Every structure is written in C-alpha cells, then in structure tokens.
Amino acid sequence: MVFVNQLTLTSALGAGMDSMRESLRDERSGLTDRGWPGSDVECFLGIADIPSELCVPAQRESRNNRLVEYALQQDGFIDHVAACVSKHGADRVGLVMGSSTSSVDRTEQAYAAMLEDQGEPAFADHFVQPETHNPHAPGDYAALRLGIAGPCMTISAACASSAKVFAVAQRWLDQGWVDAVVVGGADSLCLSVIYGFHSLQLIAASPCRPFSPDRQGISLGEAAGFALLSTEPAQVQLLGVGESCDAYHMSSAHPEGLGATLSMQRALQAAGLTIDDIDYVNLHGTGTRANDETEARACSGMAGENTLFSATKGWTGHALGAAGIVESVLSINALLTGFVPGTMNTEQCEPELPVMLESQQRQISTVLSNSFGFGGNNCSVVFGQS
Amino acid sequence: MKVCIPGAGVWARGISGFADLRQLARGGELPDVEFSAPKPEAISARERRRAGLTINLAVAVAHEACEVAGVDKAQVPSVFASAMGDTEITDYMCRKLCQGEKLLSPTKFHNSVHNAPSGYWSISAENRAPSTFVAGYRESFGAGMLEAVSQMQATQQPVLLVAYDIQDQAPLEHVTPIAQSLACALVIAPEGWAQTHTGALTNCAEIALVAGEVVADSPQAPGLVELAGGNPMGIGLTLLERLVAVQDGGAVEAQIRVPAAGRLWLDVRLGPGPSV
C-alpha cells in the first residue's frame, strides 16, 4: 500500500498549504488580469508570485526552476525529504516529476537575447545551460536540491504529466525499486503557452467558467507541487491510477469521451472500487467548449448517486503539466480537511453533468482526480482515507 | 528481472530498419548516404508532412518493433523517451515569439508537446492502452527502459519502448549538441512470453538496477560507433548490436551498461538467442 506522507503546493492560490487553505476558505480565486510581459493576449492568468530575491544556481536559472525551488521551500518539505533520505539512503529514494513546459521560458529568453544581437546564431554565455534547456530540467533540479540519488525522471505527457507520476511511483514502490518517492509537477507561464493556446483560439478573455453553458475557454496558470509517497502509513492512501489514450486526435478529445471513460474505469479497477464508492471527482474541466462537453459525457455515463463533481481551474488557472499535482493536492486536501471546492466562476452548469457550484464542508473518504492532455493522453488518480 | 525481447525497430543514417542494423552488426559497411527521414505508411502522407521528424521517426520504429515481435499493435502499452524532444519545433516557436505578431502555427503548437509522437502512434495503431513520455536528459534511454520494464512487471504484458533524438541546429547545437538523428524501439516482454510465442530476438535477458559509476557501453562495428556517438539514444544501437551477436551465437552472453539516472544504471545481460 502506498501512502501520502507529505504534501505541498505553490500556485496562484499562494505559496504552501496554509496560503492555499486561506484562499479556499476566503473563496478567493487566484486569477488576475494583470497581464504577462511581452504578451498582448486578452486573458486572465493564475500567476504564482515568486519572490524576486529567490535564488537558484546560475546554471539552473529559469522561471520554472525558481518555481520548483519556491515550492520546495514551503511546508518544511525539504526537511521532510532530508529525513527520509537519511533514513533510507539517497539511492533508495526516487523522484518522478511531471512537466510540459520544463524551462522553455528560459529558452525563449535566450533566443530573444540572441536575435537582438544580430550576430552569430549563438546563445549568450549565461544562457548556455544544457541542464536547463531540456525536458528533464525540473526533475533534475528537484532531485539535486533534495539530495535524491535514486531513480529520477520527468514525465512529459502534456496536461496529464503530473497525474501520471503517481502511476510510476506506485509501481516503483510495489516492485521495491525504492523505499520512498517524491512525486511532483511544475509548469510555468511563458509566451509559448500563451500564444500557443491563443493560436488554437482556446483562451477566454474573462476568467474561465468550466462547465458553464456560456464558457469561452481556458485561463492559463502556473504551479509547482510535491508529495512524498512511501509504504509508511499516513492518513491518505494512493488507491489506484488509470491511464489511457484517446487514439483520436492530437488536440481534440474523443467526442464520446472514450479515452476519459477508460482512464476513470482503469483507475477504479486498480483501486478495487466502483464510481458509487467515490465521494468527489475533481474534473479536468478546462473551460473549453469541446473538452468540458466530452468530460461531461464520460462522467454522466458513470456518475454515482452521491458523487460530487467540481472543476477547480477557476481557482488556480490551468497549470498544464502541473494540473495533475495541483488537482491531486486539492483532492487530498478535501480528504484531510473536508473542504470540497466548488466550481469557481461558474454560475450555472450544463444539464448533462450537475457540477457542484458552491464549495462544501463535508467528510469524504474517496476522491478521483482527472487529467487529460494533448495527444489524447488521459490519467485518473484515486486517493482515499486510510 | 528476467525478460524476453521479441522485437526491435531502428532508423538512423544508412539504417532503414532492423535488417540493416543486423548487416552492420555482422561486419557490413555503413552506406555513405545522407540521412533520410522515414515515411511510416501507418500515417497519411498529409499527416507525415505536418508531423515533423521526431514523430515520423518514432512512429516508424514503433510499428517495426511490433511487427518484428508479432505483438498486437492495438493493445501494447508504450513508453516514449527522448533527451530533447522536437528541437525543430522549439527553435520555430522561440524564433516566432521574438517577432512582433507572435503568430504560431496551431499544428506546430500541439505537436510541441513531448508526447506528440505517442499521440500519433496511438492514433495510427488505434491503441488506447496507457502511453507515456519519459525524459532523463543524457540518461533518457535508461529512464525509458526502466519505465518500460517496470510497466511490464506490473502488467505481465509486453511493453513497447521507443527512444529517439534528432540532430539539432544552431543555436541549440552549441548548448545541447546532438550530431545524428536516431530512433530505436524494443518490445520488452515477460520471461514466459517466449513459451507461447515464437521468433523472439532473445528469450533470455536479465535486467537489474545497480548503483555505481559507469561508462555507457559503445557499439563495436565502426559504422555503429559513428552513429551512436553523437546521440543520447546511441546506447540503444549498442544494445541492438549485442542482441544480434548473441542471436548469431558469436557471444554466449553480452552485458550492456545503460545509464539510468545519476549514479544508477541498468545492467542488461543478454543470453543466447532462441536458435542456439
């Protein structure tokens, strides 16, 4: 059995679990219209306010790594992992990171500086950072920072990235490759994602309203979060993970929600549960017309009688590769505190799926979190009270 | 852990499939040709043009490995691995974003996700099994292999591993240099798989995770040395070369040390092929 021993999240809802809980309690969305340097796209963003004085080594400099560093500094996470490393040995603690953007923010800056120079097509010296300009940068940085010397990798499966990390960790622990695993996710805002989603006409000009009949698209966000998993008993248990592919289209979900349904079914099967056993589903719920329709179809086909559904991207923005960890933390927090977050900004829902609009305080024992990404990649994670 | 390797696929300069690699491993010469991109028939000509090199490479070797192995393409779970992903798209996007209008191609943007080859593969094979993308920078092949072996152990079913990296251009070639484009794929199956299926490349491989300082092994054939040297996935060519050697009976056992993360490496030992 795999348990969640430690947890931390830094997002537009604040740095660390206490700030997040305060924002939840005050019903305060993290979305803002203050814009992004270099962008003229009309949108709301979920920005994580990283202190300017925060430092990472020059070779690792990037917004994404700074976000990783800032998140690791919260909730005593670094100390908890240090204790775990000294207990089991550095080789016996693994790390699985989920990230879609990695440090591409830094690559954008390196190109911008290079092209301004009009000289040879070469990065300026301080941008020559091989460990940073690659997809594994956040996993590599987190392992370095935490002194982890066990298996280490970065999963990059678009918006399903940091949900899939739980599947890897569960296998590693079950198979005895490691005694403990740090799982996490980190994606940071950058021009690539803002103009990329703009090119697909998927960005809403107003704060996103998942499952609202008049929804207009997504609000992007950024976040980094981590969990320490092991077989040492704790209040919350990882019960099962389901993964699937749509095998349909690169950027449009399967219209009948086939991949989403398979992902949820496989997660429930892995957990030995049925949907009736699930108290709360944290939906992927991006706020685009097509995605929410598909997910509503998949969920309405299997909705349990007492299951609560909500989408939380109106609170945090869509943190892309970090969405899995953001929503896993919100789901685990619901188990720990009984705070089940409502669908922020949505005032009316689609008849096909009655999502919960207002937050509720309720004792729950099982949660399922959905994360679906480009490439038709889907993942559902089930957690429960031990 | 004991595994069986029922099939492999490969593409590189002068190598258009496993049969070509087998010739090279047996002492053949690497043809003096330019690199040419594969044209996997599993995706339409129009899609191939939109897809770019990483996708075409990965999809081509994925299909080949499954065909050689005789596994069901629609059912096999898959692990894709790359150190750098699609650097052509990274370069395209970063250049566009420096311009005033910042207009990106929506196709290039959705192909910029590192799991794009996995997406095209799943569509082309009508495969709804789990599929993932794993990165470990210079150790990406080992990271992918670890993930594939771990999935295989969990499900006791064959798993497809697809590893690729493409040659990069300035300015990235000065930062994260990759000299040659290369892709290879392996189907990794449980030890018992060979009892009910015939034609495996080897039904006797053993893989263990070991801690210590290692230098990754290199191929022996001069042509393969050249190809493997400039690409983080070169270790895959080494593995395939040794696989041919044990299958041919020239080596009783071959050991390949695959770096997996930091000081960890996978100790892969290939036993004699099924024909011996």
Protein architecture, described:
With 386 residues, chain A is of the alpha/beta class. Chain A has one domain (2-385): Peroxisomal Thiolase, Chain A, domain 1 (3-Layer(aba) Sandwich). Chain A has helices at 16-25, 63-72, 77-88, 104-117, 137-146, 161-174, 191-199, 258-271, 289-300, 313-316, 323-337; strands spanning 2-11, 14-15, 31-32, 45-46, 93-98, 152-155, 180-187, 220-221, 223-230, 236-245, 280-282, 308-310, 339-340, 360-361, 366-373, 377-385. In chain A, a hairpin with a 3-residue loop joins strand 15 and strand 16 (377-385). In chain A, helix 2 (63-72) runs parallel beside helix 5 and helix 6 (161-174) packs across helix 11. Chain B has 276 residues and is α+β, with helices and mostly antiparallel strands. Chain B has a domain at 2-21 and 31-200: Thiolase/Chalcone synthase (Peroxisomal Thiolase, Chain A, domain 1, 3-Layer(aba) Sandwich). Chain B is globular. In chain B, 61% of the residues are buried. The interface between A and B is large, with 72 and 63 residues.
Order of helices and strands of chain A: EEHEEHHEHHEHEHEEEHEHEHHEEEE
Q: Which architecture of chain A would the CATH scheme give at its second level?
A: 3-Layer(aba) Sandwich
Order of helices and strands of chain B: EHHHEHHHEHEEHEHHEE
Sheet having the most strands of chain A: 11 strands, mixed
Low-confidence stretches of chain A: none
CATH class of chain A: Alpha Beta
Structural class of chain B: alpha+beta
Per DSSP, what share of the residues of chain A sits in E-state strands of 2 or more residues? 15-25%
| Gyration radius over CA of chain B | 18 Å
CATH level-1 class of the domain at 2-21 and 31-200 in chain B: Alpha Beta
- Structural class designation of chain A: alpha/beta
Walk across the major sheet of chain B and give the strand order.
3-2-4-5-1-6-8-7
The number of helical runs of chain B is 10
User: Per the principal axes of the C-alpha atoms, what is the gross shape of chain A?
Assistant: globular
